[in-house]
Amino acid sequence: MNNAISHQTHALSINPANGETVRSYPYESAEQLNAALSRSTDAFRTWRRTPVSQRAEYLLALAAALREQAEDMAQMITLEMGKPIAQARAEIEKCAQLSEWYAAHGPAMLAPEPTLVDNGSARIEYRPLGPILAVMPWNFPVWQVLRGAVPTLLAGNTYVLKHAPNVMGSAYLIQQALRKAGFAEGVFEVINVTQDGVSTAIADPRIAAVTLTGSVRAGIAIGSQAGAALKKCVLELGGSDPFIVLNDADLDAAVQAAVIGRFQNSGQVCAAAKRLIIEAGVVEAFTAKFLEASRALVMGEPTSTATYIGPMARFDLRDELHGQVQATLEEGATLLLGGHKVAGAGNYYEPTVLADVTDQMTSFKQELFGPVASIITARDAEHAVALANDSEFGLTASIFTRDAAKARAIADQLETGGVFVNAFSVSDPRVAFGGVKKSGFGRELSHFGVREFCNAQTVWLDRK
Length: 464
What we know:
Layout (H helix, E strand, L loop, with lengths): L9 E6 L4 E7 L3 H18 L4 H17 L1 H12 L3 H25 L3 E2 L7 E7 L2 E5 L7 H12 L3 E5 L5 H13 L7 E3 L4 H9 L5 E5 L2 H13 L3 E5 L4 E5 L5 H13 L9 E7 L3 H13 L19 H16 L3 E4 L14 E4 L6 H4 L6 E7 L2 H9 L3 E2 L1 E5 L3 H10 L4 E4 L14 E2 L2 E2 L4 H6 L2 E7 L4
Parallel strand pairs: 5-6, 5-8, 6-7, 8-9, 10-11, 10-16, 11-14, 13-14, 16-17
Antiparallel strand pairs: 1-2, 3-4, 4-20, 9-19, 12-13, 15-18
């Protein structure tokens, strides 16, 4: 089954609930790639001159188009990567709200920005760069694309999407929604190419910049190629996010957030509560409550609205996850729940809870991309911070405490792109999203996401 993820000449979409092939998508030729880049370049010449207020109107139309075909898109997500249908529907609605938010607030982010030049004759103008190549993952097949594409398009760039091979159906439905919304051909292009095709696109002078959401290994490869071509890139990579619970926390709220933060999307989230770092005074009580809530999660057919945990998206990733769990147990961790592949044709993995995890174990040091939670005991708040920062990743973190001053003090010390107090991590258009260390660099969302692929051009009139 591992060999069914990709093929030399085709991208395969495989239903992880039963292992059956959904559809085969032939990879495009060099000529087809060249034509797509030409369409994107030609469209940029017109799109960049379209007033930003009119681009915002297109985003409102996109929100309507997304809602119009929401059920088709949600069903495709569930079919291709196994996301429970209720979560898939929520993903599409979130994308529609994203489009509306940027339509309302984005134009102001692109307005000329005054400077401190005395006579007010200098300003910063935000100019689009050109066609942006986006290499996107499968875990949020629509949200991951549009959270980058919407602000990028609003800024006047065009967008060339190379989606993950197993969710090409979702890629084409996104393109269909943009066409329904009135976006011209070439403004949003989908390319179905191999890794060699991606390399060709990055090196092509028509591509102005590159963005990737994916693994550290992919980030190193894409970042190296972008650097060799002297092109800006934004990398949103892996995470092993700490979820800190202190002795004074509201345990019920912490447990509820930890369960969602760890098990939503069957645990296949970059910014997820992967390392549960619990202060010693409450670790026993937290563990008991977390176990009870985890046992209550419904795992099953992803098309059922009762299901919270569906199959993992790819069979090879389930094998990798199981190997990480087994290694952690061999290193001395305690298995409290799950820990097994579910027998049958589907790609299911039991919701799993590991306790007595230390900083020397596999599940602490590596990212576990699936429904596995690791509970780590911290001696005190200072030790919790040290454990949280003892990672090659730095995407997001959560802190649970009733002491607001303590939360702010801890947040100041955490080496992450985002900190969430008494809440699990989210991506929201109102705030910047991205990481540090091996979680990548650059930012999506908020005004940062609008300006990432802009030329901040100084315009100084009548300089004396």
